[in-house]
């Protein structure tokens, strides 16, 4: 019987990004320079992808009204850190649409306010400089984020350590392997605490 999307979300939320990365042969892990902008951020969702010109957020404004519950907005901003692609207002707009996180290979601003929203945002940098709004951009195409290709509909998991991308075609197998990894590590920890492992 196929695993439902809701079950995948729930079960992925109980495993660490590091555990998922380990069972994927350490592939699919996003460059650590793209990190959570507030402490405690964690999410699981499916990618809605955007490619935009450096420092320009016109296409991001275009895509936000289309976001749905459980989406992760994944933005290739060319890795540019000179201008923020989103701030507090755009974060709250996405949150109100049901989007669970923004992942941005680029910069953001209003980091304290985004933290107060408790809306997960992962970005390469923080800057007060605002963006242009001219374009060009693309929605729903494969994009590169921190050295990993993300296709529309891929699963993204984020925690304090960082981000991992799971192909939708592989998620069932990866999920089971990651749960086994979690249980193995939990048993190893119990063995250490019980004195069964020479520390």
From TrEMBL:
For this protein, the record's SUPFAM superfamilies field holds: RraA-like
Return the protein name.
Putative 4-hydroxy-4-methyl-2-oxoglutarate aldolase
Q: Which Pfam families match?
A: RraA-like
Q: Does the keyword Transferase apply?
A: yes
Reactions catalysed, as given in the entry = oxaloacetate + H(+) = pyruvate + CO2; 4-hydroxy-4-methyl-2-oxoglutarate = 2 pyruvate
What are the alphabetically sorted keywords of the record?
Methyltransferase, Transferase
- Tell me, how does this one assemble? Homotrimer.
Q: What class of enzyme is it?
A: lyase
Per the similarity annotation, which family is this? Belongs to the class II aldolase/RraA-like family.
| Cofactor(s) the protein requires to work | a divalent metal cation
Q: What does this protein do?
A: Catalyzes the aldol cleavage of 4-hydroxy-4-methyl-2-oxoglutarate (HMG) into 2 molecules of pyruvate. Also contains a secondary oxaloacetate (OAA) decarboxylase activity due to the common pyruvate enolate transition state formed following C-C bond cleavage in the retro-aldol and decarboxylation reactions.
Q: GO biological process: what's one of them? A: methylation
Gene Ontology MF: a single term:
methyltransferase activity
Q: What is its EC number?
A: 4.1.1.112, 4.1.3.17
Q: Which species is this UniProt entry from?
A: Paramicrobacterium chengjingii
Q: Which domain of life is it from?
A: Bacteria
